[in-house]
Amino acid sequence: MDREIPREEIRRRRIRTIITRSAIAGVAVIAILVLIFSMRKGVKASDLKFSTVEEGSLETSVSASGKVVPAFEEIINSPIATRIVEVYRKGGDMVEEGTPLLRLDLESAETELDKLNDELQMRRLALEQTRLNVATFINDLEMRVKVKEMAVNRLSAEVANERRLDSLGSGTGDRVREAELAYNTGVLELRQLREQLVNERQVKEAEFKSKQLELSIFAKNLTLQQRTLEDARILAPRHATLTYINNEIGTRVAQGEKVAVVSDLSHFRVDADIADSYGERVAPGAAVRVKIGRETLTGSVASVTPLSRNGVISFTVRLDEDDNPRLRSGLKTDVYVMCDVKDDVMRISNGSYYLGPNTYELFVDNGDGTLSRRKVKLGECNYEWVEVVDGLRPGEKVVISDMKEYKNSSTLKMK
Question: What is the pLDDT of residues 238-253, one digit of tens each?
Fold first, then answer.
């Protein structure tokens, strides 16, 4: 026969059941929390680059891309259309001023120059002949004027004689009028001769000056041809390095075609490009910082091109230390044109994360081994610092490494 279970025993059994179930539920919750925590994304702290928010001054700048080029570089072009006969130097050679670099075929040019010299002599002889002809013609006119003056004087004397004879009754009025008519005709003819002499002198002088000018122009053209022929003897213009030479013997080169380049590789400058939206911030004399690896060189804007091409403005940077051993022709650099100074601003180190004034989502160190994503408003920058406008406090540490891999995570655990 079944015996009734005491109430105290039933109460103890209920308590044990509740405790057991509670323990199981607690263990399950802890397991779930451990599982969730273990599934949270983590990142190695040693792989991250941090920057501590600090207060200080910020010399703002705009960035540009630059290229190191020789401070002096001269392109030597062929002054005539010809062909290469000999090459005396090779690329990379150091050359002194006046050193022959290559020889062009100048035979046809020299023959043409000889023809021009002969023509110059012929033109000079023709000019001398013109001068003699003009002098002879003018002298002949002057002699005719003198003869006419004598004839007029004689006619004047005849008029006086006829008038005297007529007053004495020995002459007639007709003879007086004939003498006066002859005299007046002679005076007109003398005047005509004198005017002709003046006109002819002016005309002949203008013709002679015109021929002199033609001769002068021809002589200048000949001098230009001589200089062109001298330039065709390709010589080094100064002490420099031969960075390029056309060494293909027998190759025909057109007039104005590049045949050699000499550069001064001991001194350099930087040619830079910047978006035309920053054009008003780039002016001659503006301070510049040029980053080459981890080294920063100072300089200033030497010149700015007045035109924008494809949304880009070009400018030249004069370096304070243009012979720095880190400089190499063709080396790509980051160029920063300094604009203004801001005092007492919050700032963090510049890096690849910064793409201009905007709001960014950066990971901030919570101090407990975790990182949390936070919206941060950033302002102006220079090559070293970025202005923090809002979202951070002095002393906080911010990750400035590339965190694109964790763009969908709000919290990260540091390992």
Answer: 888 888 888 888 888 8
